[in-house]
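dumping these here so i dont lose them again. two proteins, back to back, each one seq then structure tokens. dont judge the mess
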Amino acid sequence: MKKLIVFIIILIPVILIAQDIKPLTKKEKKEERKEKINQLIKQEEEGALIYQKQRLWGFSLNTDGWNIIYERGKYKSITKTNIWWMELGERKDPKQEKLSKGAYNIPGLSLGNPFVYGKENNFYYFKLGFGSQYLIGGKGNKNGVAVSAVYGGGLSLGMLKPYYLDVVDPNTGNITEIKYANNDSIFLNSNLITGSVSFSKGFSEIKYVPGINLRTGLRFDYGRYNEVLSALEVGLNLEYYSDKMPIMVLNDPHHAFLNAYIKIEFGKRK
């Protein structure tokens, strides 16, 4: 009996409070939603980038090649967003140059595909990174530019694909496909080279080399509205691989690579 009385005593205030709490009418819900939107608009006009998640695609031209990027971000505060990204690209030696062999010394006519003299490997890479985007300066208004610092790092996977050439066999006179094999006098004899082999040649022989990477840059978001991400990013990449990565026969291979980049990015926020 005592337990029942205690239960009733506790229950009565709960019932009274519940009676005072009335469900919002349709009009009140509409007004509440409108007020929330107005608050977001006010924050946007003050320069804040208001969203929960963002995703973007980008294309980058580097001082030593190119890459494409896919990035995801999750809003943590008005100024900070946690991001992760994937990159796929190709690194080239600054001194490499594509050449074409003239057919029978007739200008304008080429024999075989263009080729890079002295190239040992195509150097491709895949990167997975984690970091942050930190808002430095807001848009100020809908037509402004938001400036953010982007930084982070992660893992890299270097991929060396042997570079094949079509050459004239000095013994038989037939055209054959060869790759560089340690001081190969035929591979480096420009008089015997007719051109490069098709792009697909050598993929079954790729050598994989693990590494790490760092990224830092400035992102200039000029999208008119916060829901749309349209940005230009400039910065630096640093990569280090566990083994030396030879690209050109006549140049010393390196473990570390530093480059500058400019990147065009587009995406959405929500």
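---- next one ----
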Amino acid sequence: MDLTARVEDYLEAILEIEMSGEIATVTRLAKSLGVTKATITAALKRLKADGLLEHERYGDVILTQSGRGKALTVYRRHEFLTDFFSRILGFSRERAQKVACVMEHEIDESTEMRLAAFTDAITLAERNKEAWLRELLEKLDSAHALPVPLCLLENGSNGVIARVTAQYELRRRLNAAGFIPGVEIFDIFRTDAAQGGTSFAFTMNGMEIKFGINEASAVWLYQP
């Protein structure tokens, strides 16, 4: 059974209350999730019908084995993502929690496992004080502005290629022509012709190059 993000939030909240040593009740859940008791009661009825918990009117809320397994999956992802964003990427704990709350419902097991493997590699590198990790963390601490598509830059702008987002044949052509991360582009100039459409001219590697809108939308630049 596929669960909605809200259902997963309910299961996770029940599990967290259990893990704190308390008993989950309608009142505690309403306070934890910031909703009314009536909303909680209606949700519990649906979750009980789905076999995810046990709850009698005015009684305690208890996860079934199936419900606890699903709740544990969500809780594990939340805690892992919070750690990843706070410890690895340097977010504040509060910000990491908010981002984790959004992402925990979107990633699948394969994505979680790959992120976990990456985190383990970072942890091992920290332990071994490897130079590449120090360089990576320095880059993260000095992160610059986000890249912008070439087609959105003002006339006269310069930039450094950050990425090429084209696919298939267009990507192959751009890569073959030297459009790769790190290459500088100078003096971008846009021309809007009534009949000929929009074109972009600029200088790269000492040569003047002209682009159509498709190419200019696929090349993203960091600006100085």
